[in-house]
Write a structure and sequence with these properties.
With 384 residues, the chain is of the alpha+beta class. It has helices at 5-14, 28-38, 65-76, 125-131, 149-159, 163-182, 212-215, 219-222, 232-240, 258-270, 287-298, 317-330, 346-356, 365-377, 380-383, and strands spanning 2-3, 23-25, 42-46, 59-62, 79-80, 83-84, 88-92, 96-107, 112-118, 136-140, 185-196, 201-203, 207-210, 243-246, 251-255, 277-280, 305-312, 337-343, 360-361. The protein folds into three domains: 21-92, ATP-grasp fold, A domain (Dna Ligase, domain 1); 96-222, ATP-grasp fold, B domain (D-amino Acid Aminotransferase, Chain A, domain 1, 2-Layer Sandwich); 231-375, Rossmann fold (3-Layer(aba) Sandwich). The structure holds guanosine-5'-diphosphate and manganese (II) ion (MN).
Amino acid sequence: MNIHEYQAKEIFGRYGIRVHGGKLVRNAGEAGEAARSLGGQVVVKAQVHTGGRGKAGGVKLAKSWEEAESMAADIFKLEIKGLPVRRIYITPAEDIGHEYYVAALLDRDKGLPMMMVCREGGMDIEEVAAKTPELIYKKHFNPLSGLHPFEARELAHKIEPDGSKAVAMAGVLVKLAKVFLESHASLVEINPLVEMTKGGFLALDGKMNLDDSAVAMRRDLESLRDLDARAPQQDLARDAGLSYIPLDGTIGCVVNGAGLAMATMDLVKHFGAEPANFLDIGGSSSPEKVVTALKIITADPKVSAILFNIFGGITRCDHVAEGIVEALKQIKIDLPIIVRLTGTNEKQGREILEKSGVAIFASTMEEAVQEAVRRAGIKPEEKS
Ligand code: GDP
Ligand code: MN
């Protein structure tokens, strides 16, 4: 789950990382008022779940409250990387000495949290990583004890030659590691962390990505969810009790049980294609769950074949079959549906599908996957 800059900054503030307190507004009039009450120059910032807002015209420096109001009016009209702007954060403007990049993130290969810093902040870090990776310094840290001050200083010295500044920056890094660990984040990024001309470091921007499984256990984190910015498919899945993770491939998978779902994805890869998703309909599946699963999968334009792999235990094959038939009444599906159904009420399930003639049967998992991969590879013009 992503949270907004203003929310990340609220958390930073609680941990003693310096931020400017700003005001969240929902229309241009409120933006003008907020700017007037803050006084002086302000920054008008779109709150959307994407980086690069500045480049897209979503971050503007206003010299007066009147200007803040008219800039907010323009920003509310923007779509930033396809996202509408529903809220704007107005913050006091700061005189900037230098902009650094600092982030705590999960290194999935090593299975450890990692601090990543770069002297060149304020710009797209992916670009820096691609063109000048030597400017980026990384340090893994212990997930239980956090980033030790001596580790933080070692890292800060790499990007800040001035000793006392580096020590001050190290203080921010230690706190950042704490935010990361205690919020169950997979990423906490400050880009830029700025050295103010009057001295000291300030988090000018904040980006946090929280682990969905942790959010489910923590009400304080769940309350940070922006209900306006929900990803429709993932929310549909969560509400229906499905475990769904979108991926990049073309084979839409509907499976019961996480283990079988993983095995199915492995087999899809084995036969030369890529899964479009991980989807576990769970143990006790109802026809409605299957309908939702199909709605989610068919909303993904990359999907060119749908593969059901059901090993009926508590899950009843007839329920799955009814779900497929019902889904086809509700939505138009032009994609081939390949079904492997075995276990509880297998015969009934097969009969339901045979009567409606909507699916292609396979008797084994290998056969089903091979058939799905083959059909997904056929171009639309060759199909008819
Ligand atoms: P992003 O484009 O989504 O990463 O938004 P940021 O909050 O990082 O802002 C983009 C850029 O705007 C920063 O890198 C700064 O150069 C500039 N900026 C943002 N706030 C201020 C401010 O208070 N003062 C000054 N001088 N520049 C700012
Ligand atoms: Mn930024």
